[in-house]
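ARCHIVE CARD
SHELF: 3
SLOT: left
DATA:
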Amino acid sequence: MRLFVQRRPSRRRRSRGQALLEFAFVLPIFLLILMILLDFGRVVYAQYTITQDAREASRVGVAQDAAADTPGACPVGSACKIAAIRLAALAMHPGVTYGGTEIRGEDGSSGGNSGCPATVSPNDNFYPDGTDGGDRVVVNIQVVVPIITPIISNVVGGAFTVCTQSVGYVQ
């Protein structure tokens, strides 16, 4: 009878350290991909939100312009119409932070296709075809979305600029 039997370590016991090492290698990559997806989702959400805000603001501008002949209505191009357009856009933006300075009109020189300009000067001209009942209402919104993933923010400069334009036509 043998009193001392030497047993080999089980395969399960030896693989425990290997699984921990694999987990340590995969976890940072998984978290980075998760954070990139989160940032991408925030940018897409901001784009969707400001697009809806610009549509609502141009709709209000068209309704204000169409109602200009009714008694008690704001005259075309007046400060109360500009305020109504800005308030319509600001009332619609859940989860995206911006103020009234990001909501701009158009100077009339671009013909309604300014898209996302590199720099946009503050412009309250939401009626670029003229203040006497212009046919178009143009609303531009430009927002900077900060990137929270450290590695990606260093690559892309720390933020994405998201912008949209909505043109409404008075009929």
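SLOT: right
DATA:
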Amino acid sequence: MSAPCKDCERRYLGCHSECADYIKYSRERNEMLDKKHQEYSILHDNEIVRNRAKGWLRNLKKDKR
């Protein structure tokens, strides 16, 4: 995904706040980044849970000895 600003003939200093193309691009980009962040958070949280479970299992095995 590339910004619509590259090679834009209507570009001027401060145009991002008024440009409909850039506002749409920014909204879509933020949605994509939010989705990626949520997916990463879910995967990361699952990894933490797995690691804790492994630790609990190791401790259970040690206690049985």
